[in-house]
Amino acid sequence: MEQEDWIFHLTEVRKRLLIVVAWFVVTLSVGLYVSPRILRYMKSQPLVGEINWNVFSFTDGLMIYMKCAFLVALLFTVPVLLYQVWAFVRPGLTDAEAKSTLPYIPVSFALFIIGVSFSYWVVFPMMIRFMIRMNHTVGAVETYGIDRYFSFLFEVVFPMAIAFELPVVVLFLTRIGLLTPQRLKMTRKYAYVGLAIIGSCISPPDMISHLSVTVPLILLFEISVMVAGWQWRTMQESPANS
């Protein structure tokens, strides 16, 4: 019976992985088709004035094209992956647990998209403006390579997007009992210091830019505390805890 259970679980995992891989291949094909349009749109809608994208090797354009297609596929595969993970563990959950954990998938995806949008439209332009000012200060001639431009873009956008997952992470840790509202309130001042350090690392070293990044992070933490408090009260009032 034990061996049959292992075979059943491995078969289920294989099925779920095949679904994810198939979806990734489909979205990668879509990404390969739309990537030139995405890149041309980004070029035609400069965030901070006109910046020429130069290539310094024959493969620069191809690599950016493939990275863009891969990121499109990854972005739209993550929700499917999360759902397949949830569907795999669903038989081991109660109806109440399944109902309460399913919303994590669209919420986490929505927060990631919000984080990408905020960092691309707000944080990244501030970083570019600061770097351009610094280059002018030292009298440098600006020639930007497309590879370094997008590498810098990813280094700014994705850490911020991941930081926007904070409410979901806190809510999940509260759900499994590792965090309580009391613990969150006790660690608030340390969290503020940590978020301020993170904000200073991913923002230009001027006060306005620093506040523009740190304040949203602190607001996310406070939203996390509020949602965790609501989740904790709901858990305490549930029949299982009465």
From TrEMBL:
Quick check: keyword Protease in the entry? no
What InterPro entries does UniProt report for this protein, alphabetically?
Sec-indep_translocase_CS (IPR019820), TatC (IPR002033)
- From the UniProt record, report the name of the gene that encodes this protein: tatC
Q: What does this protein do?
A: Part of the twin-arginine translocation (Tat) system that transports large folded proteins containing a characteristic twin-arginine motif in their signal peptide across membranes.
Family statement: Belongs to the TatC family.
How does the record classify its membrane topology? Multi-pass membrane protein
Q: Which organism is it from?
A: Paenibacillus phytorum
PROSITE patterns referenced in this protein's UniProt entry, alphabetically: TATC
Q: Which NCBIfam families match?
A: tatC
Q: How does it assemble?
A: Forms a complex with TatA.
Keywords (alphabetical) are: Cell membrane, Membrane, Protein transport, Translocation, Transmembrane, Transmembrane helix, Transport
Question: One Pfam family, short name please?
Answer: TatC
Give the stretches traversing the membrane: 17-34, 64-89, 109-132, 152-178, 214-232
Compartments, as annotated in UniProt: Cell membrane; Membrane
Q: What superkingdom heads the lineage?
A: Bacteria
Q: What is the protein name given in its UniProt record?
A: Sec-independent protein translocase protein TatC
